[in-house]
Each structure stands twice: as C-alpha cells, then as structure tokens.
Amino acid sequence: MPLVKYPLPSFLEGMLTERAYGRWVSKIAMAALRHDRERKRPFAANTSRSEYGKIVHEAVIAGNGIDPFTGDRLRFDLVDTYDFRKALGDVAYEKQFDDMPTVDHIDPDAKEPALEICSWRINFCKSQQTPSEFLDMCEAITAYRGQAENAAPCRAKRGTGAASPPLGSPAKYFLPDFLEGICTQDQYRRWLDGRAGKLFSADKRLKRPYAQPGAKWYYKQKINEAALRGRLDPFTGETLRWELIGTWDPTKKDPDNASVRNFWLLPTVDHVDPESDALEFEICSWHINDCKGDLNPEEFVGVCRKVVEYAKVRLGFKIKRW
Fold it and tell me: Whose CA is closest to 237, among 126, 103, 146, 124?
C-alpha cells in the first residue's frame, strides 16, 4: 500500500478525512506558491508545489490545531465550506469563518519560506506584518483604547439610527484647522469627494439602507464630520499622515512591503460599525482599517486584547514561537 503524501494529523481525526486534508494542503500550497511568485519573493522561483505542500503540512502539525496568536482552537471542519457568493455583503456570514485555518508567512520579508497556520481573522488582520510588529500593534491598541472612555469614538448603535439620510442639500467643506500647512483646500475637497463617491457606490452595491439615490452629499457631510476629529488614529493614538492623501498609486501591482509600510498612516474612512443601520464614519490609518475589516470597534479591540493576553501566557511559560 503506497504511503499517504500528507498523513492526517491525529488531532484532526473525526474532523476531516485524510483525502479531504490532502486536497486542502495541496490547494493551500498552490495558492501560497502562486502568491509568492506574483510578489517575486526570491525563494518561490526555486521552490516546487510539492515542497510548499510539505511546509504547509509541517506547519499544521507544529500548530496542533491552535491559533498561535490567540490560543483559540482552529475550525478545520470549515475547510472548503466558504461560499464567496454568500459572503458578498453579508458580514454575519463572514464572521462564521473567523476561526477557519489559513496559512500565513511567519515573516513576509524572510529569505526562506517559513509558514504557520492561523485563523482567517488573524491572518487578515496581521497582513504583511511580522509577528513582533503585529503584537506591537495589538499592544498599542489595547493600551490606547484603555486609557479613558473618551479615547474611543462613539459607536453607532444598531437599530437606533435613521435608515434614510435627512433632507438637505450639499454644503461647502473647508479645510480642518489642524490640516493647515499639511494639505491644501483643493487637496482636501478632492479627497472628500473621492472617498464619498467610492463609499456610496460600495454601500449601494451592498444594498445598505442609507445608500439611497442622491445621498452622496450625505456621505460627504458624514466624512467631513469624521475628518474634523481625524488628527489621531482612534485605535493607536498615532498622528495620521494627511500629507499622503492623493499620493498612493492604486494601479501599482503587488507593491513590496516597504512601499506599503510607507502608507500605513495614510488617513482612510471606515464605517464605525459595518452592521449598523446608521451611517457613521471615523478616520483611521490605512493599516488599522485594513486590519479591522468588518469588525465593530469593540470586536476589533477584543481581538487585539486576546492576542496580547495570549502572548503573555506564552512568554510566561517561555514558549518561543518567533
């Protein structure tokens, strides 16, 4: 009887069949290899799909079914069950897959492929950071948000906001005082108009109740209100780099990590709570917006707090992961 290429780890027995596990490892390995070749990572050119598969399999065994950042049990039973069509605009559906296992580079800048298995939520949040950078970010967020009640923005309560924008007409928007000398009135207005247009179009596509025809002006009003409070990132307390607005090139394919990091503090507009029926925005860094995803503030801070607390447990027991 031939040897199985990827034997099912003992902790996955009863959760997956050996065949399903082997298919998943092969698929994940192929996706990781393709992604690394697109990013022109040097090790990907000389590494085969089979070698990537071996690295993924070894990462599964090493992880023992536990997320290395939160200590949560990974939901391997969710493998190959995600439906992209159902996920479109359905935040509740996507959240069901937060603990689904995914493969992640331990250090995106490493010269050799070193992978680990973590949850989809953590992988999405960690993005192109090293483990130390990710932990630093989580510590900064939990510390800043815990300083005082007024450090956190007001959250739009579900079910309490008006689904329809109020009657009114577009207004003229002037440069916030703290941006004088950083960007011009024209730059600010172009940014405001561009953000309002894109967010309105996206929300209309997702059939959110406040994205009604002719409501783009209302988006501009709400974004401008958020910008007046937008000198500091509301999660880390860092000063946002407003001088970067309008300088990112969206046509640049697969930028390197260094280029992306230069824009981490670029101000972006984020829905305070993607599931609220009230339109409420806040301005946060691109880095945080990308990491927060479809979580509301309490959920996002909760994830960061869990990462910090689990890191303390690991360090306390002298478990060296990184």
Answer: 146
What contacts 278, CB < 8 A, 6 or more positions away? 156, 157, 160, 161, 162, 163, 210
pLDDT tens digits, 291-320: 998 899 999 999 999 999 999 887 664 434
Q: What angle do CA 119, 124, 129 make, to 5 degrees?
A: 105
- Residue 317 to residues 61, 311, 313, Cα–Cα distance (Å): 20, 10, 6
Backbone phi and psi for residue 88, each to the nearest 5 degrees, phi listed first = -60, 105
Q: Which DSSP symbol is given to 243?
A: G
Strands 115-119 and 101-105: antiparallel
**Given the DSSP bridges, would you call strands 267-271 and 281-285 parallel, antiparallel or unpaired?**
antiparallel
Check if the beta carbon of residue 309 is closer than 8 Å to that of residue 190.
no
**Domain map (residue ranges) of the chain:** 10-126, 143-310
Can you list the alpha helix ranges (DSSP code H) found in the chain? 18-38, 42-45, 49-63, 84-87, 91-95, 120-126, 131-145, 185-205, 216-228, 257-261, 286-292, 297-316
DSSP string, 87-130: HTT-HHHHHTTTT-EEEEES-TT-SS--EEEEEHHHHHHHTT--
The model's pTM: 0.80
- Cα(313)–Cα(290) distance, integer angstroms: 27
Q: Which pair of tokens denotes residue 22? A: 């082997």
CB 202 within 8 A of CB 216: no
Task: Give per-residue pLDDT as tens, 109-149.
Answer: 778 888 999 999 999 999 888 888 899 999 999 999 887 44
Residue 263 tokens read as: 């824009």
**Residues facing residue 16 across a β-bridge:** 13
Residue 145 Cα to chain centre, angstroms: 18
| CA triple 275-145-124, angle to 5 deg | 55
